[in-house]
Amino acid sequence: MRLLTHNLLQCNKKGVKNGYPLAIQAVSVKYEESPYDKDFTSAMIPKLEYGALVKALGELGKCPALTGGEALVGGVPQLPATLPEDHAENEDFLKKLHVILFDLHLVEGKLVCPESGREFPVNDSIPNMLLNDDEV
């Protein structure tokens, strides 16, 4: 599951008012390079909740198992705490953002609701967001 996908997910359990952003408990993360597209990456920025992305990146960085990470010179890129004002023209920022959004994949782990603590498993990069009958 890409961090772009994570940025769109929330807990819809009955009674939960603040189910976003889901916390990440990563067991396995994979780096898989994709072609860089400056325009596409830049176009995704208005659709993102940037603070949630920075938090998710921090949680993903705690994972001890990163497959393919040897291709990342200098390790997993870090983002500034706030979105740079020149983000549309800042090539270095856009390249880092591309890697974070499209090249890092949560393979195994859990997504946890910040309000209820409900855990949603992630297996083989697929988040299972299905609720039980009593949670709908």
Describe this structure in words.
With 136 residues, the protein is α+β, with helices and mostly antiparallel strands. Helix content is 26%, strand content 20%. The chain has four helices and five strands, in the order H-E-H-H-E-H-E-E-E. It has helices at 3-6, 38-44, 50-60, 91-103, and strands spanning 23-31, 66-67, 104-112, 119-123, 126-127. It has a five-stranded mixed sheet. It is globular. It starts with a helix and ends in a 9-residue tail after the last strand.
Keywords:
alpha+beta
How would you summarize this macromolecular structure in one to three sentences?
The protein is an alpha+beta fold and 136 residues long. The protein is built from four helices and five strands; from the N terminus they run H-E-H-H-E-H-E-E-E. The mean pLDDT is 95.
Task: Indicate the topology.
Blueprint: H1 3-6, E1 23-31, H2 38-44, H3 50-60, E2 66-67, H4 91-103, E3 104-112, E4 119-123, E5 126-127
